[in-house]
Amino acid sequence: MPAPEPPPAAPALPRLAVVIDDVGQSLTVGRRLLALPGPVALAILPQLPHSQTLASEAAAAGKPVMLHLPMENMAGLSIGPGGLTTGMTEAEFRSQLQQSLNAFGPIQGVNNHMGSRLTADRQRMDWLMQVLAERQLFFVDSRTTAQTQAAFAAEAARVPHVSRDIFLDNVRSEAEIDHEFRQVLARARKQGAAVLIGHPYPETLAYLERRLPQLEAEGVQLVSVQVLLER
């Protein structure tokens, strides 16, 4: 008698990874982020008052910890301490990068803060990815320019990488945040996975505190960035 066929595997749920940028200025806000359900990643700026404390607490809570690395932008906006610019020599670039990577710990990956000029510079993206490869860190491209070379450089250096699908809160109103959240869920369902980046604004925090606990009931799985990298 033939063995019964195994039941068909349940289709995998669409997956959503959430990254919150610009963390480190406020301990209160950082701890609200840590209280969000699931493996929401904290992208922490170097050299801020609470960068190290929040990195330690995030790691203890099992949340992904990332360096939110300041990079030169097209608009000439100040990028803050620890940033990388196209005017740096290779030695200056690598030295500043190592300092920023050592600013707090532990970190598992990096994403760009601003960077519309620097991420479009293939040579400097190659320098960046060589260092990330040595340190076995992943990279999330915030995609602040359509001309970004980050994914190509990461691929060449064999650095695990993903790219941002949607910015949640370019407009800080509940209606717009809700619109962008629905967009990213639609993209996750279509592609199988999506990456959402938000910021520690009061409007964003209030929305995510309410919305993230409902995700599973809507058939979407909240996962860490690392889970998407393993696909």
Automatic annotation (TrEMBL):
What InterPro entries has UniProt attached to this entry? Divergent_DAC (IPR006837), Glyco_hydro/deAcase_b/a-brl (IPR011330)
Q: Name one Pfam family in it.
A: Polysacc_deac_2
Domain of life, per UniProt, equals: Bacteria
Choose any GO biological process term that the UniProt entry carries and state it. Answer: carbohydrate metabolic process
Q: Please state what the protein is called.
A: Divergent polysaccharide deacetylase family protein
**From what organism does this protein derive?**
Halopseudomonas pachastrellae
